[in-house]
């Protein structure tokens, strides 16, 4: 298992959930919800990378249940490419995030939070789930999870 903090991002059309790991890559912790505001969110993400000294960013890649990529995946790849321009030395990887938002909603409801109460943290919880999945893939395979940002043809570690 590689050491170093990883940030995970659940990119939505209006909000971005952010989570981080500890340096050992064992724990996944919610960080904050960042609002998408004309590209300004990029600067907040770069601040978080610096604040936590993150070595890698894991972005959830929304795939259709069939496994194919749709419009949202195109948005994630485009947004990730812009972020990569701001953080050229930070490794950015894409990890399949199918159903993480659904799971995050279910977990928060199970914890007793209603729809309005969990709206502000559901994106963070989805980012935690993406990060937990990525860390588990790395523990199981010994390889970095998912795909490098620019690669759309390689199959993900599962």
Structural class determined from secondary elements: alpha/beta
Strand order of the largest sheet: 3-2-1-4-5-6
The H-and-E topology, N to C, reads as EEEHEHEHHHE
User: Count of helical segments?
Assistant: 5
Helix content estimate: 40-55%
Q: Which runs of at least 5 residues are low in confidence (pLDDT < 50)?
A: 153-158
Overall radius of gyration: 14 Å
Distance between the termini: 16 Å
Question: Outline, from the CA principal axes?
Answer: globular
The biggest sheet amounts to: 6 strands, mixed
- Overall mean pLDDT: 85
Could you give the count of β-strands?
Answer: 6
- Strand percent estimate: 15-25%
Characterization of this structure:
By secondary structure, the protein is an alpha/beta fold. 41% of the residues lie in helices and 22% in strands. The protein has 5 helices and 6 strands; from the N terminus they run E-E-E-H-E-H-E-H-H-H-E. A 6-stranded mixed beta sheet has the order 3-2-1-4-5-6, with helices on both faces. Helix 2 links the parallel strand 4 (56-61) and strand 5. Helix 3 (100-110) packs across helix 5 (122-141). The radius of gyration is 14 Å and the shape is globular.
